[in-house]
């Protein structure tokens, strides 16, 4: 028998059972914890915290029923819906400090609903392969370094690059900077498409704005054509007297959805700044018929705006008739949006 074994047995007793003193210390620790955790009224404590959890559950579960009639409150909530999850750890800490069993049990409700809505985005669904890499980027009309932004986009190595918010005086600079890597391109209004593969059937898409902020093109891939839409839907504003003003964005989304629904090609890719998230009901005309590459094959929330501290994914890559393999955000450029990218598998 080694000295270490002898010492251990001496502390635990010859038969390996704990010494009475050690067992007594453990019992006292457990007893003190139970006295702290199970005070009188532990079921009556934390009623307010439990009520907050129930309210949070209602907002998460019934978000689509919150009306937009007053300040588009429903769409405003849905734009930042994932951030309601920040309240969950706060409520957990408060429930523990309050020593309330009622608050802890009530907290299970919003936790389960939040995980059902967004838990899938916390799982890395990134796959391998894909025969088409696409990038979309709102380059910001006030971008102080368009040349640097163009270099960063070329370095990403995509097959197709879509740009939004192209200022009239900067579009030629982007065209020149991207020309060597992307021999085929078209700019329609304030959006543009650059491709390593030939493009045809280029036309503006009328999204009821009075000027061109959306376009369509057919990209000729080795295995067939892919319809690529580039869109920049109108911005939304949060105003004290008017709430979440998004009427023009909503009507533009409807027009874009109609154009995509009428697309004759089987494989369709939408690239752009939609100024709304996948949860926003106002984008249903688009989101109901297409899949988000981030939701299907991404890792994390994929927030893209604002670039310094991303809080929402309003820049989207969406597909139908195409299989997403991976989706991610790219490093910050001179824009106030992050570029986003995806690898796609086209049908054969």
TrEMBL record:
One of its GO terms (molecular function) is catalytic activity. Keywords: Membrane, Transmembrane, Transmembrane helix. It comes from the Bacteria. InterPro entries: Endo/exonu/phosph_ase_sf, Endo/exonuclease/phosphatase. Residues 135-337 form the Endonuclease/exonuclease/phosphatase domain. Pfam families: Exo_endo_phos. The chain crosses the membrane at residues 42-60, 80-97, 104-123. Residues 1-24 are annotated as: Disordered. This is Vancomycin resistance protein VanJ. It comes from Actinacidiphila paucisporea.
């Amino acid at each position: 028998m080694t000295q270490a074994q002898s010492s251990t047995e001496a502390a635990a007793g010859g038969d390996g059972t704990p010494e009475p003193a050690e067992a007594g210390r453990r019992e006292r620790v457990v007893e003190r914890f139970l006295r702290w955790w199970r005070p009188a009224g532990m079921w009556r404590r934390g009623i307010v915290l439990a009520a907050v959890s129930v309210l949070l559950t209602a907002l998460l579960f019934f978000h689509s029923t919150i009306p937009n009639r007053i300040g588009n409150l429903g769409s405003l909530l849905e734009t930042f819906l994932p951030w309601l999850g920040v309240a969950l750890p706060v409520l957990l800490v408060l429930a523990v400090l309050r020593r309330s069993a009622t608050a802890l049990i009530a907290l299970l409700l919003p936790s389960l609903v939040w995980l059902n809505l967004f838990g899938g985005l916390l799982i890395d669904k990134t796959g391998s392969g894909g025969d088409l890499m696409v990038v979309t980027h709102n380059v910001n009309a006030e971008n102080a370094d368009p040349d640097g932004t163009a270099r960063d986009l070329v370095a990403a190595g995509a097959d197709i690059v879509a740009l939004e918010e192209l200022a009239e005086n900067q579009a030629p600079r982007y065209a020149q900077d991207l020309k060597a890597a992307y021999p085929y391109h078209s700019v329609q209004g304030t959006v543009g498409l650059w491709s390593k593969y030939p493009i045809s059937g280029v036309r503006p898409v009328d999204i009821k704005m009075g000027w061109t902020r959306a376009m369509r093109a057919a990209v000729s891939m080795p295995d067939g054509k892919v319809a690529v839409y580039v869109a920049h839907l109108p911005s939304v504003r949060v105003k004290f007297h008017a709430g979440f003003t998004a009427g023009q964005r909503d009507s533009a989304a409807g027009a874009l959805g109609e154009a995509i629904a009428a697309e004759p090609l089987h494989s369709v890719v939408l690239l752009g700044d939609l100024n709304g998230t996948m949860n926003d009901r106002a984008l249903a005309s688009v989101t109901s018929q297409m899949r988000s590459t981030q939701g299907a094959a991404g890792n994390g929330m994929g927030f893209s705006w604002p670039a310094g501290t991303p809080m929402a994914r309003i820049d989207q890559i969406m597909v139908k008739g195409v299989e997403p393999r991976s989706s991610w955000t790219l490093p910050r450029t001179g824009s106030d949006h992050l570029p986003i990218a995806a690898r796609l598998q086209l049908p054969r």
